[in-house]
Write a structure and sequence with these properties.
The chain has 263 residues and is of the alpha+beta class. It has four helices and 14 strands.
């Protein structure tokens, strides 16, 4: 019996795709309803935790030494999947380490929480990605972030980022750093989207449903070679990131106009 309890409360080191190490330590296995909502909320400050949140445990994602898929977006997505697997819906990030000379991966320590109270209603509302129940198409927002070179990971900064070519079905178009492109998807179902930059590439699959909007972040990560990273992100994250990138883009355009006038 004791062995069973220990097996429930402490999971060993798990390895996600391409070697990223993920360790989960469940410290509170109380009886709770199964969560139906697929959204997992990420917070960076304990004061932002919704009321009545109950800690379930801790997670740690590190570099196994063979990790390749360990960009910031991929590591956060691994954390979300770990939370879902343990019937949790909130992640409180305690530490998020950027790549350095010691490791080319992002690494994190976090706590996971369960909350199925009315205090979550506002968050559920914000995470609703339905824009028109009667629409005969879906919307996808491609959000291209900029790279800030730092440490060993971005020593090839001149070759990282820039302009990307996106393609799916018969669509083929380019997107640059600090920009947002929105497209209509007129057919429901699973769709694979590919992105390339020079010889680098990446892809993501999304199951589209009419009347809903989806957000995909686009960046690059250098590990064993440089990759394009496409990651489907939550509606809350997507709307905020879209707003941030559009603001930066407007500031860049304004700066370029002023520079042109001063010539």
């Amino acid at each position: 019996m004791r062995i069973k309890i220990l097996a429930i409360l402490f999971t060993g080191v798990l390895f996600t795709s391409c070697g990223t190490s993920l360790k989960t330590n469940l410290t509170n296995n109380f009886q709770r309803e199964k969560l139906n909502n697929e959204e997992v909320f990420i917070v960076y400050n304990e004061s932002k935790l919704p009321k009545e949140s109950k800690k379930i445990g801790d997670i740690k994602i590190g570099d196994s030494g063979f990790s390749t898929k360990c960009s910031k977006e991929e590591v956060l997505n691994d954390a979300k999947n770990a939370a879902k697997a343990n019937n949790s819906n909130i992640i409180l990030i305690d530490e998020l380490k950027e790549p350095s000379f010691g490791s080319s991966c992002y690494r994190l320590k976090a706590r996971i929480f369960y909350n199925n109270s009315s205090s979550m209603d506002e968050l559920w509302g914000k995470s609703n990605n339905t824009f028109d129940e009667n629409a005969d198409y879906a919307l996808i927002h491609f959000i291209c972030k900029g790279e800030n070179p730092s440490g060993w990971t971005y020593m090839k900064a001149g070759l990282v980022g820039g302009k990307y070519t996106l393609s799916y079905n018969d669509e083929n178009f380019k997107i640059s750093e600090y920009s947002v492109i929105t497209k209509k998807i007129k057919k429901e179902g699973l769709l694979k989207i590919n992105a390339t930059s020079f010889t680098r590439n990446g892809d993501v699959e999304i199951d589209f449903k009419n009347g809903r909007e989806y957000f995909v972040s686009l960046t690059t990560h250098t590990n064993i070679g440089t990759r394009v990273v496409l990651e489907k992100i939550s509606t809350i994250e997507g709307r905020q990131l879209k707003q941030d990138i559009e603001k930066i883009s407007a500031e860049i355009q304004e700066y370029e106009l002023r520079k042109e006038k001063n010539k």
